[in-house]
Write a structure and sequence with these properties.
Length: 336
C-alpha cells in the first residue's frame, strides 16, 4: 500500500486543513470556522460517473446531514493503485458570520486495490458516529470485495433501479438486509409520495369501507421503473392482505415502452388509479381525476430522506421480501 494513502497521513492532512482554514478565516476578520459532523458518509462510485454532479449532491446534503464524507472513485481494471486528496465543504448559515465546514476525502482505487480499501477507510470513520454507505456502483455490489466494505456500515443505501438486472438487484438487496444491516433502496424511496397519495385516497371513511371490495391490483411500468413497480405492487398487496383482502396482482411492462409507472385498484364498485404524467401525478377515483405535482426525485432529495432514517423500517423490509419474490419467481419454486 502506498504511503500516500496511509490513514494516519490522511488524518494529519485533515487536521492541517482545519488549522489552515481557521487561520485564514481569522486573517480575513471572520469569527472562525465551525466543524460539523453527525456521521461518516462513505460513497462508492465509478470514476466514469459525473463526479461534479455527485459533488454537488453531497454538498447540498451537508447543511442538513453534516458528515465526514469519503468518496471512493472506482477506476476499474488496472494496476494496484490507490490515491487520495482531502478538502473541506463549507457554507455560511443565514444570518451568521461564521462558516460551517465538513471534511471530505476522495480516494481513487483500482479493482486490484479494493482489498486495500478496508484498512484505509475504517480508521477514517468518525468514532462513535454512524457510518452510512451509499453504494452507487452496481458493478461493485456483485463483487466479493463488497462484503467486507459493507460490513463497516450501520446502514447501506443502494439503488436497484440503476442495476442492469433489477430483479437480480432486488434479490441481492434482500440478501444484504438478511445479513443484519439497515438497508435503504432508492427504488423504494422514490415511492414515498405514491404511498402517501394512495393512503390519503382511502383516508375518507366512505372510500375506506370500499377497500375490502378491491379484487385486482395492476401495476404497469416502463423505463427504469421495474424495481419500483415490484415494490409498489408488493406493498399494496401486503397491505390489503393485512386487512383480510386478497386481490390478484399483476405487474407488467407497458406495451409502448414509455417511461411510466401506473397502478390500478379495481373491484365491485371501486376503481382507483395513480399514474405519473411527466412532473405530475394523476389520481383517478371512480372516473374523477385530480392532478398534483410530482417532480422527478433527484439523488439529493432521495438521500436526504434516507439519511434521516436511522432505524430498521419493517414496512420496507416486508415490501423488499415480497418484491424480491415477485421479481424472481423461479428462485422461489414458482413458474414464471
Amino acid at each position: 500500500m502506498s504511503a500516500t494513502v496511509a490513514p494516519e497521513q490522511i488524518l494529519r492532512e485533515l487536521a492541517q486543513l482545519w488549522t489552515d482554514s481557521g487561520k485564514q478565516e481569522q486573517a480575513e476578520g471572520g469569527t472562525g470556522v465551525l466543524r460539523a459532523c453527525t456521521m461518516t458518509l462513505l460513497v462508492l462510485a465509478e470514476a466514469s460517473e459525473d463526479l461534479q454532479g455527485l459533488g454537488e449532491t453531497v454538498a447540498a446534503l451537508m447543511p442538513e446531514h453534516p458528515a465526514r464524507t469519503i468518496v471512493v472513485r472506482l477506476s476499474g481494471a488496472g494496476e494496484r493503485a490507490l490515491t487520495e486528496r482531502v478538502y473541506s465543504q463549507c457554507w455560511m448559515p443565514f444570518g451568521q458570520r461564521r462558516q460551517v465546514c465538513c471534511e471530505q476525502v476522495e480516494i481513487t482505487a483500482s479493482d486490484a486495490a479494493l482489498p486495500d480499501l478496508l484498512p484505509v477507510v475504517l480508521p477514517l470513520a468518525v468514532p462513535d458516529l454512524p457510518l452510512i454507505l451509499w453504494c452507487r456502483s452496481t458493478r461493485l455490489l456483485g463483487m466479493r470485495e463488497f462484503g467486507p466494505i459493507a460490513a463497516m456500515a450501520g446502514k447501506i443505501v443502494l439503488d436497484s433501479a440503476a442495476a442492469p438486472d433489477p430483479a437480480a438487484a432486488l434479490a441481492r438487496a434482500k440478501a444484504i438486509a438478511a445479513g443484519g444491516a439497515i438497508l435503504g433502496d432508492l427504488a423504494w424511496t422514490r415511492l414515498t409520495r405514491w404511498r402517501e397519495m394512495l393512503s390519503q385516497l382511502f383516508e375518507n371513511p366512505r372510500n375506506l369501507a370500499r377497500l375490502v371490495k378491491v379484487s385486482a391490483v395492476d401495476v404497469e411500468w416502463g423505463g427504469i421503473h421495474a424495481a419500483s413497480a415490484w415494490y409498489l405492487g408488493a406493498w399494496i398487496a401486503d397491505s390489503l392482505v393485512s386487512v383480510g383482502v386478497h386481490p390478484t396482482l399483476s405487474i407488467r411492462r407497458a406495451p409502448n415502452q414509455e417511461d411510466t409507472l401506473r397502478v390500478r385498484l379495481t373491484g365491485d364498485g371501486v376503481a382507483a388509479e395513480l399514474g405519473r404524467q411527466e412532473d405530475r401525478m394523476v389520481v383517478t377515483l371512480d372516473g374523477a381525476s385530480q392532478c398534483t405535482n410530482l417532480p422527478q426525485p433527484t439523488d439529493y432529495l432521495l438521500m436526504r430522506e434516507e439519511l434521516g432514517i436511522v432505524r430498521r423500517d419493517p414496512i420496507f423490509e416486508k415490501a423488499l421480501d415480497s418484491a424480491a419474490r415477485l421479481a424472481n419467481p423461479t428462485a422461489n419454486g414458482a413458474e414464471k
